[in-house]
Amino acid sequence: MTNRRQFLTGSALTFGGVALFSWLKSPAIKTAAAGGSVPVGGKVKIVKFSDSGQRVGAVVVDKVVKTDAEWRKQLSADSYEVTRNAGTERAFTGQYAESHDKGLYRCICCDNALFSSTTKFDSGTGWPSYWAPIAEENVRTKVDHTFGMDRSEVLCAECDAHLGHVFDDGPEPTRLRYCMNSVALKFIKQA
Fold first, then answer.
1. Is 156 noted as a catalytic residue in this protein?
2. Which of 107, 109, 110, 179 is catalytic?
């Protein structure tokens, strides 16, 4: 004969086991376990810019969501590794680290405007660095705990591409250094 406590404990364990089994069998978990990412949609507010760098205005757009196979088909191996797997290109190897051309930097994955050459500066780190994004709405940050440190990872707000990190050792007026990977960016040169 079971007492009330044993019945409640047994019921809770059974319910928890069924819930865990269902969760482990879900398509999202199977995709993640197979090395794929689970696409998450939704809406996001960004600021659109023309290729000449002129602000067009704020808009609400669907988040860009693609499967890993679609990203691999669209991107170079290096761009895929950095933007979709939070990789980092080697310092002083990126095509925009030493660039001083006037223009606009867009996300390699979705064309979202990210940075302007007017905020680019030589940080001496070997990666293109900016003291501010072209619009705060176009990027987002999250805490990155890799390598035993706490850093602020910078992501494209429209497609969640990993772009780099932001540090608080930049120049005035923001004192920030958005340290980006060249392979995460596409440069639109202005005359």
1. no
2. 179
Residue pLDDT tens, the chain, 191 long? 555 555 555 555 554 444 444 444 433 433 333 344 445 679 999 999 999 999 999 999 999 999 999 999 999 999 999 999 999 999 999 999 999 999 999 999 999 999 999 999 999 999 999 999 999 999 999 998 887 888 899 999 999 999 999 999 999 999 999 999 999 999 999 97
Q: For the chain, where are the alpha helices, taking DSSP H only?
A: 4-24, 27-33, 68-74, 77-85
Q: What domain range includes position 48?
A: 36-189
Tokens of 14: 């059974």
| Count of the separate structural domains present in the chain | 1
The answer to whether residue 120 sits within a structural domain is yes
